[in-house]
Design brief:
With about 325 residues, the chain is of the alpha+beta class. Helix content is about 25%, strand content about 25%. The chain has 9 helices and 15 strands. Helix 2 packs antiparallel against helix 3.
């Protein structure tokens, strides 16, 4: 289905110590070939899985991590159960060294159990690791996470922050879709998800086009990249991405950052609140609220509140931490009534 997907553009020669704004501010995905090829973590992985694990253990102290464990039958695809009432895996807490031992124990199995540690803060899990394996973001302060496991498939989802994902050990296949492909990806529940983000219900390995016919349209907009150790990919905010880890040991380090101030909450809260308060109104009222959102949010400009004295604009003023704090307090009063 996705064999004809467009290849994501590649660039080489980017300085990992000073990432350029034309990458960090891009609205299109790009592969950064060899960006972290000089990381000691990458070099250790190219020697062998054993060397990679030994390198990780250098920085391991006693960290407990969240892990997802699935039976061999799920073939690495962490997903829902048949009726979407639960999941096909167990979420557990374990020591990182135990997880590494499990991956090593099953490394030669034709169908190993699926083992996955995702979105774990590097500085907490492996203190000192970034002293030898890091990127330069200037004044930006990204959240840096590590992802470890064996062969896994992570369903298409989107993230609010921009993202640079660096393949340190193993190979990964990324399949990306622009945000406007939302309706063609058949997204599952918003408030009951395998790992926090809503995911596509389509199995990319064998898409069921009778159940999900519009996925054929999404596939025509897919962009794909297969990354080797040392490669990285920039994934813009809100782009849907499906990720496959292809080897018996895979390690990825990613950097998330937002282009908005910290006081701005995630818009998913606004979406959920709007679903609760607007979606089921009579059509005439929904249309009126559509116009209000268009006027005050999606097409707002300097003229929106120009008729109101500046000192009286309050929430209609340019947003800052004080206004956000006041709005949050008012919302909490409403929600806690």
């Amino acid at each position: 289905m996705l064999t004809s997907a467009k290849r994501i553009p590649e660039i080489t020669g980017v300085d990992p110590r000073a990432l350029p704004d034309d990458v960090l501010l891009s609205t299109q995905p790009v592969v950064l070939k060899g960006l972290v090829a000089d990381w000691p973590m990458v070099r250790a992985g190219l020697e062998s899985n054993r060397s990679a694990v030994a390198y990780i253990r250098k920085y391991y102290r006693d960290a407990t991590v969240g892990a997802l464990l699935g039976a061999p039958e799920i073939e690495g695809r962490f997903f829902y159960n048949e009726d979407l009432s639960g999941f096909n895996f167990k979420a557990v807490k374990l020591k990182l060294d135990v997880m590494l031992d499990e991956v090593e124990r099953h490394k030669d199995a034709a169908k190993p159990p699926a083992i996955y540690v995702g979105s774990t803060t590097v500085d907490t899990c492996l203190p000192g690791f970034r002293g030898e394996n890091d990127l330069g973001f200037g004044e930006r302060q990204p959240l840096v996470s590590i992802w470890l496991g064996n062969r896994t498939r992570i369903a298409a989802h989107h993230d609010l922050p921009d993202n640079i994902a660096c393949v340190a050990v193993g190979h990964r296949r990324f399949t990306l879709f622009p945000p406007e492909q939302l309706e063609n990806l058949y997204i599952g529940p918003l408030d009951f998800t395998p790992a926090g983000q809503a995911i596509s219900l389509v199995d990319f390995a064998k898409p069921d086009l009778q159940r999900f016919p519009k996925f054929a349209a999404a596939a025509r907009h897919a962009q794909v990249a297969e990354l080797a150790p040392g490669d990285a990919i920039f994934i813009p905010s809100m782009w849907w991405h499906h990720i496959e880890a292809l080897d018996s040991l895979n390690v990825l380090v990613n950097y998330w950052w937002r282009r908005s101030p910290a006081f701005m909450d995630s818009p998913i809260g606004a979406l959920m609140y709007t679903i609760m308060t607007v979606r089921d109104l009579p059509k005439e009222q929904r249309d009126a609220w559509f116009n209000l959102f268009r006027h005050y949010v999606f097409e707002a400009d300097e003229q929106t509140a120009a008729h109101i004295p500046e000192n009286a604009r309050r929430a209609l003023s340019p947003m800052d931490a004080d206004i956000a704090r006041d709005i949050r307090a008012r919302l909490l009063q409403r929600l806690n009534r």
